[in-house]
Design a protein that fits this description.
This protein is an all-alpha fold. 64% of the residues lie in helices and 3% in strands. The chain has a three-stranded mixed sheet.
């Protein structure tokens, strides 16, 4: 075997073990007994110790030095392995193990604190998680910017300053659009109660309509919807609220976007660095375009309106146009995952600025709730009413995902670029969506984005697919045109 062959065989074993670790995480959020939390933390720490040892094994460096990557796919595999190896060798094994153990414990503590509205009960473990991530970021940065080093895990080749520049360009137009909309009458919403079992039935219909392969996946419930896995085992979760079925339906479509990306990657890349999404920003471009530009479009909501009437009977809205307005209502709210397209990115900007300050040491966890509440009141014009609607609403910080939040908004930016190219490629898209047929749209995304996996760098894959350098302009134009028409601005 050549050095490249040996390296790839070793890498496939490492990737298989990482998939097992991911399955433990999926189980923890869906089916694990509450009393198993401490044992699961030890299990996660043990498998992380094995993974870290493999990722930082000196043989990987030797194989990289000797491997020949003349072909584009080989060169890309080596690029991704080298990037991961260079990061792994900077992180002490004991630190990697502690992070895995503490973040597993913290997830359960956060869930209980959220249920109890108990910020104080969460702060000790959050402080530990923040300190561990700062330590990790410092080890990776080696004198450079700690937050940038953490962002690299989720959006390679992107810095906090670059993200901040995009957000600074977006904020004024989003704030102006939001203010103009909130001066208009609020469209009528849904009425009545919507059975949770029926919601799950219709969510499966929606998942299938967007191309989710249930032979290689499954749909379960979780407190916080997510997608997990890659290749032949890609699972999603959603949640139900009997007063708000849109929460279930659009969470499902969103997670199917993630899952379709993983299921759509070229099978030859399975269990290799190219066999997963290239970045969380690109991942979010898929979930957001599925959920918003496709799923919340006038054409698709017309089809969904009929499915809703078949499933639930009368629900206070009598025609497709009113239903489209209800799906896209812009109104005050606390929850990021339930936010409309106009306000969603403002929720992300809040989190981005706070977590940058946390990692820089400019903000301490004891001051985080007050900082959140002050910033929320400034940005949205009203006060947070309880911690589960504020600093405790998201799982991300409890599990140490610092640097992850900005990728949601980057995904929206990327989706805006892709949407224009998709509309050009599929000129009768609305006619197809009005029949509940997303196959041309999802097929185009699979061909131009998903199948490549990690072959190209994040911004490159978006540029190749959209024919333009990624920019916030298409997203902002789309939002202004869509909501300008909806609200007669």
């Amino acid at each position: 075997m050549t050095a490249y062959d040996q390296l790839m065989a070793y890498q496939r074993e490492t990737s298989a073990l990482a998939q097992i670790a991911g399955r433990l995480g999926w189980d923890q959020e869906t089916m694990m007994p509450r009393g198993a939390a401490q044992q699961r933390a030890e299990e996660m720490a043990a498998i992380e110790a094995v993974l870290h040892a493999r990722r930082s094994d000196p043989r990987v460096g030797e194989w990289l030095a000797a491997a020949d990557g003349a072909e584009p796919v080989q060169a890309a595999q080596l690029r991704e392995i080298r990037r991961a190896y260079d990061r792994a060798v900077k992180i002490p094994a004991e630190l990697a193990t502690r992070i895995a153990r503490v973040t597993s414990e913290a997830q359960g503590i956060w869930a209980q604190a959220r249920s109890d509205e108990d910020v104080a009960g969460f702060l000790p473990v959050l402080t530990e998680v923040v300190n561990l991530r700062r330590e990790e970021g410092a080890a990776l940065a080696q004198g450079g910017n700690v937050y940038d080093a953490l962002v690299e895990d989720y959006e390679p080749e992107t810095t906090g300053e670059q993200i901040a520049a995009i957000f600074d360009a977006m904020r004024p137009r989003l704030v102006e659009l939001r203010a103009a909309i909130l001066d208009r009458p609020l469209p009528r919403g849904l009425e009545g109660s919507f059975d949770a079992h029926k919601q799950m039935q219709l969510s499966q219909v929606l998942a299938l309509a967007f191309g989710y392969d249930l032979a290689r996946g499954r749909i379960d419930k979780a407190v916080h919807p997510f997608s997990s896995g890659s290749g032949a085992d890609v699972r999603i979760t959603t949640r139900t609220n009997e007063a708000d079925p849109f929460n279930c339906f659009y969470s499902t479509i969103h997670e199917v976007g993630h899952a379709a990306y993983e299921q759509g990657i070229d099978g030859d890349y399975a269990l290799t660095p190219l066999g997963r999404g290239v970045s969380m920003g690109v991942h979010e471009s898929q979930s957001r375009i599925y959920e918003n530009q496709l799923g919340r479009s006038r054409a698709f909501t017309g089809w969904l309106f009929e499915r809703m009437r078949e499933t639930f009977g009368a629900f206070g809205i009598d025609d497709p146009d009113s239903f489209y307005a209800a799906v896209n209502r812009v109104q005050n709210g606390y929850i990021r995952t339930e936010a409309d397209e106009v306000q969603y990115n403002l929720h992300i900007m809040l989190r981005f600025d706070l977590e940058r300050a946390l990692m820089a040491g400019d903000l301490q966890t004891g001051d985080l709730e007050a900082a959140w509440n002050d910033r929320f009141a400034s940005d949205f014009g009203y006060a947070v009413d309880k911690p589960s609607n504020g600093v405790l609403q998201d799982v991300h910080w409890s599990v140490g995902l610092f640097g992850y939040f900005p990728t949601y908004a980057l995904g929206n930016v990327y989706a805006g670029c892709l949407h224009g190219a998709l509309r050009t490629a599929v000129p009768d898209l609305d006619a197809q969506l009005s029949r509940g047929d997303t196959s041309a749209a999802t097929g185009w995304l699979k061909e131009h984005v998903q199948r490549h996996g990690g072959l190209y760098a994040p911004r490159e894959v978006i540029a190749r697919a959209s024919g333009m350098t990624p920019s916030e302009e298409p997203l902002l134009t789309y939002l202004e045109e869509k909501f300008g028409a909806l609200y007669a601005l």
